[in-house]
Amino acid sequence: MYLAEIRKYEYLLDNRFFMHIEGDELQKGKINVLLTVERKPSFFLLQFRFEGVATVLCDRCLDEMEVAVNSDNQSANRLIVKLGKEYAEENDDTLIISEEEGSLNVAWFLYEFVVLAIPMRHIHPPGKCNKSMSVKLKKHSAKSWDEDNGYEYEESAVMSDYGQETETADPRWDKLKDINEEN
Fold first, then answer.
1. I want to staple 66 with a disulfide (CB 3.0 to 4.6 A). Which of 20, 26, 53, 134 is the partner?
2. In whole angstroms, how far apart are CA 122 and each of 29, 62, 101, 117, 143?
3. Is the pLDDT of residue 86 over 80?
4. What whole-number distance in Å separates Cα of residue 39 and Cα of residue 47?
5. What is the pTM of this model?
6. 145: left (phi over 0), alpha (psi -120 to 50) or beta
7. Taking the chain, what is the end-to-end CA distance rounded to the nearest angstrom?
8. Residue 34 — φ and ψ, nearest 5°?
9. What one-character-per-residue DSSP string does 107-120 give?
10. How distant is the alpha carbon of residue 177 from its chain centre?
């Protein structure tokens, strides 16, 4: 009869950890990790649970901001490790390590799971973006020149001074709306 052996490990991923990992997406944070290793008859199941904050750059103003990260999706935060002749990756969540070596450094996997938990879009809450950067962004937004009427209009969404996106209307649409209302 086989008895499963379960071991738990706790880690604190802090700024030192992120500085030593050769990853570009994340350089700062404070994240608590609980790693559960369960020995099965033919493999090891590693489950990563984490919670904390990561420091990223705002996509709009480029200032640092903190983003909460946690391991909501448990199936995405697991790794199956098998013993074999040499190191190989069978698929995204299964890898084979050499029986002779018999150990696995999980630092890179910890980093990847945390990075995957960070939202793709990093934007300060409304009103929290760097005001001077918001003004510069608005000033340098893409504009086009309408030669028939001699005016500029903005083609895309721009940011207001409060860090919120506002959609500016193309004046040509107003003329079309007038035609529609007349009919």
1. 53
2. 15, 10, 40, 12, 25
3. yes
4. 12
5. 0.69
6. beta
7. 83
8. -120, 115
9. HHHHHHHHHHHS-S
10. 41
